[in-house]
Amino acid sequence: MRKGVDPARLAAFEVLKAVRVDDGYTNLLLPAALARHGLTGRDAAFATELASGTIRRQGTYDAVLAACIDRPLRKVEAKVHDALRLGAHQLLAMRVPTHAAIDTTVTLVRQQVNQGAAGFCNAVLRKVATQDLDAWLAQVAPGDLAVAHSHPAWVVDRLRSALGGRADELPDLLAADNDPPRVTLVARPGRATREELPGTPTAYSPYGVVLDGGDPASVPAIAEGRAGVQDEGSQLVALALVAAPVSGRDERWVDLCAGPGGKAALLAASAASRGAAVTGVELHHHRARLVARAAGAGPGLAGVVQADATQAPIADGSADRVLLDAPCTGLGALRRRPEARWRRTAADLGELVALQRALLAEAVRVLRPGGALLYATCSPVLAETAEVVAATLDAHPGLRLDDARAHLPAVPDADGPLPGTVQLWPHRHGTDAMFLALLRRE
After folding, report:
1. Known binder of ligand: residue 263?
2. How many domains does the chain have?
3. Which site among 34, 67, 230, 436 is 20 to 30 Å from 385 CA-CA?
4. Which residues contact 385 (CB under 8 A, 6 or more apart)?
5. Of 146, 167, 195, which residue is a domain's last?
6. Is 328 annotated in some ligand binding site?
7. Is residue 112 part of a domain?
């Protein structure tokens, strides 16, 4: 009797297919795949690393596979290509015995494709197994950081530029993008305390912990909406705006582009303690609902408006504090969004930068004189950070750049590309590569 397909590997295979065919997102697809196959504990962790790690490192594995196949990779059937990548990840990056990695992949292909494809996979993976990853890289791409760290070449070039005079850190940054992300929780002030949350306190946010293990949904404060799952970098974005002084009234806060709601929830919890309230603006209906659910009913949330934030239904100069976490390439969160590096192209930048400038101009419009505006992106790319801010300052003579660094004093080595701006990095701070700029209207 032939062996059945291992459920963890089948779950990972299904995730790869959904990412490829349906433009799905790995972090959203995995929970359903794990539940569908009844995977928990170590099996769930194995399937998660197999799917996410394979997608992160597919550029590296494709270079190795191309050296083991006598035809162009584009002519290999897509399902077979997915399976070969899964097998390569087990052989070259996971502690899976060679025979187990090959046999289980061949069984998977036999049952999901056909016997001929299974034989082909067996032959290819046996060639892959003849060398370790370092030896393969020395053979197929010596000195090529893009292949070695599985990033598109244009992304490597943009990250090198973003590092400025510290481009020697580029290999460390690229390696950090491939590290599995830590699950970080946040206690929403006034609703939960950090001591309620299981895990190790975060280095810079006074409200965060790094979860040591287990399901975040099983934490009571998470289940009750008093705490959430949020990268420490995102926590620091909200906290920097909260810490910035404003002159006069401090009651009306606005979160443009508020979905999915993590920062809005942290802002709302902080606003409530000051007698202020946050209005969230979000274009998409389902994301607007997520904002309302995350921020919760209570005095800290004035409401969530479903609207285009480039034409926000908010009066001129009416907001005391404004957060704009702008849509961007997401190249600062490649640890958590493994498919993003393969979906974005250099051509996307022009459209995104135009949108960022329009959104920031709208944020300036609704900000009152003496108030505080925080512009943030989950990208360190200069076109989306320093260049957007500089263009906005040029277009608004009454606008000035303030010192965001002063409001995150515990964070070391985080000077951004413009004076007073903040740039977080995964290889330096263990966070997403968030950019922060604090702006004020005279």
Report:
1. yes
2. 2
3. 230
4. 162, 377, 379, 416, 417, 421, 423, 435, 437
5. 146
6. no
7. yes
Residue 138 and residue 235 in one domain: no
Q: What is the CATH number of the domain that holds 65?
A: 1.10.940.10
Ligand-binding site membership of 257 (annotated): yes
184-187 and 227-229 strand pairing? antiparallel
> What is the 3-state secondary structure of 380-432?
CCHHHCHHHHHHHHHHCCCEEECCCHHHCCCCCCCECCCCCCEECCHHHHCCC
- Same domain? For 373 and 258 the reply is yes
Residue 307 lies in a domain: yes
Strand pairing partners for 391? none
Mean pLDDT of 158-170: 97
- Establish whether 394 is an annotated binding residue: no
Question: Is 121 among the catalytic positions?
Answer: no
**pLDDT per residue as tens digits for the range 262-307:** 999 999 999 999 999 999 999 999 999 999 999 987 789 999 999 9
β strands within 247-363, DSSP E = 252-256, 277-282, 301-306, 319-325
Residues 271 and 375 in one domain: yes
Does one domain contain both 243 and 116? no
258 assigned to a ligand binding site: yes
Which residue is catalytic, options 68, 121, 328, 378?
378
259 is in an annotated binding site: yes
Taking only the tens place, the pLDDT of each residue in 76-105 is: 999 999 999 999 999 999 999 999 999 999
What is the CATH number for 372? 3.40.50.150
